[in-house]
Amino acid sequence: MSKSLILTLALLYCFPDTSLGQIRKLSWLKDAQTPPAGEFNLNPLNHWQANLDQVITSRRQWEKRKHVESRSVREVIEKRWLEFLGPLATQPRKLPKLEVLDRQIIGDVERTLVKYEVLPGDFVEAYILKPTQVVGKVPGVVVLHSTVENSIELPAGIDGRPEEFHGLGAAQRGMVAIVPRNYLWPTNHGIQAGEMAADFLKKYPESKGMARMLYDSQVATDILAALPEVDPHRLGCVGHSLGAKEVLYLAAFDQRIKVTVFSEGGIGTSFSNWDAPWYLGDT
Question: For 175-230, how does the pLDDT look when each residue is reduced to its tens digit (9 = 90+)?
Fold first, then answer.
């Protein structure tokens, strides 16, 4: 499937009332589909071999099972990664009870601050943003914030540049968004990455820091999918920088996520800090 078709389908998913003709007329679409010159001169096949003695060139090869009891290539890689991330990545989850801390109306959007227990003794705050008038069930978006001091207040549209108000913007476009706080922020104002990662790894020594981020984002997805206004079959996620790393994993390991926007997360190990203890550690 071409990159152009993938992005077009993503746009149609997020904006179901927009016609294909309208999408093709978007002035920024061509630029968004064109990678920078000289940045991607790599053999793509090598990235999909994954020590499987098989070169993957199509989605069918990626998902096909040789027989009923065997695993597809995708399932084999998924199993390996989940084992690498540690037991928390596959730990059963319960839908948490939400405590409402604050609720505001901003134009045609309702913004609610909630608190919930994500793991025993560990609480997370999140903003839920939705249109004040919702007809039927609408798409839902998990919005994961970047490394900024004010954490969830940026995508929720409280503080920062309007172009980064991804949660508020989704609600203004008719969707429902949940914006959970990353565990590295003990409060909404100020990151303590080293201390929070050390505390988590002490409690869960067999799991990677990235397993905690994946678990938390899946709990947020559980909450989003359970909201009465949300169509659980039309879920997406968006993240920038730190948030992009999180959506990469959420999209890979949660089949409910149908559309993903990954912005400047840094995939290559040579120019990103994947070895930080709050991600994958010194592996």
Answer: 999 999 999 999 888 999 999 999 999 999 999 999 999 999 999 999 999 999 99
Distance set, CA 1 to CA 31, 118, 187 (Å): 19, 37, 42
pLDDT score, position 167: 97
Instruction: Name the residue among 59, 39, 55 with its Cα closest to residue 47.
Output: 55
The structure tokens listed for 125 are 């705050």
How confident is the model over 221-280, as pLDDT tens digits?
A: 999 999 999 999 999 999 999 999 999 999 999 999 999 998 888 877 677 888 999 999
Q: What is the mean pLDDT of residues 107-114?
A: 98
**What is the per-residue pLDDT for 14?**
47
Is residue 113 within 8 A of residue 92, CB to CB? The reply is no
Alpha carbon of residue 211 to chain centroid = 13
Residue 110 — φ and ψ, nearest 5°? -100, 125
Locate the domains of the chain by residue range. 3-88, 92-263
Please name which of 115, 87, 116, 98 lies closest in space to residue 215, comparing C-alpha atoms: 87
From the list 159, 164, 16, 178, the residue with the least C-alpha distance to 110 is: 178
CATH code for residues 92-263: 3.40.50.1820
pTM reported for the whole predicted model:
0.84
- DSSP 8-state assignment for residue 44: T
Contact 247, 238 (CB under 8 A): yes
